[in-house]
Amino acid sequence: AEFAMVLPVMMSLLFGTFEYGIAFYTFNTMQAAARDVGRQVAVNTMLVGSAGDAIRARLPGWARDGATVNVQQSAPANPNANVYTLTVSMPMDSATPIQFFSRLTSPTLSTELRMKQE
User: Fold this and answer.
1) What is the mean pLDDT of residues 75-85?
2) Is residue 90 within 8 Å of residue 56, measured between CB atoms?
3) What is the 3-state secondary structure (H, E, C) of 48-82?
4) Which of 12, 93, 94, 111 could share a disulfide with 102, CB 3.0–4.6 Å?
5) Residue of 82, 86, 81 whose CA lies nearest to 32
6) Which of 108, 65, 106 is nearest to 90 (CA)?
7) Whole-angstrom distance, CA of residue 59 vs CA of residue 80
8) What local confidence, expressed as pLDDT, does residue 107 receive?
9) Contact predicate 67/46, CB 8 Å
């Protein structure tokens, strides 16, 4: 009887820990992808139009469809003053395949990168 009372609490803690860890991994991957692609765009080895697809390709498979990528330029005509701003965001339920606690809340993971054109 005691095991039946403790089991749901223990399983909730276990699944919550796994879900948080996977979401943290997805967020770190999202930041690294934005940083890598932003650097490639800033040094003119990648076109601005293909940055969104490149970032999505670097994300885990479960998070690719839920990611929203926005790339903006401050002064496209002036390379000396142009600053690229890459924003990547996704809802929490897209950041993890488990979706145990993320169904109850709807936070959004978001990262922003600003890099001057070289």
Assistant:
1) 93
2) no
3) HHHHHHHHHHHCCCCCCCCCEEEEEECCCCCCCCC
4) 93
5) 86
6) 108
7) 31
8) 87
9) no
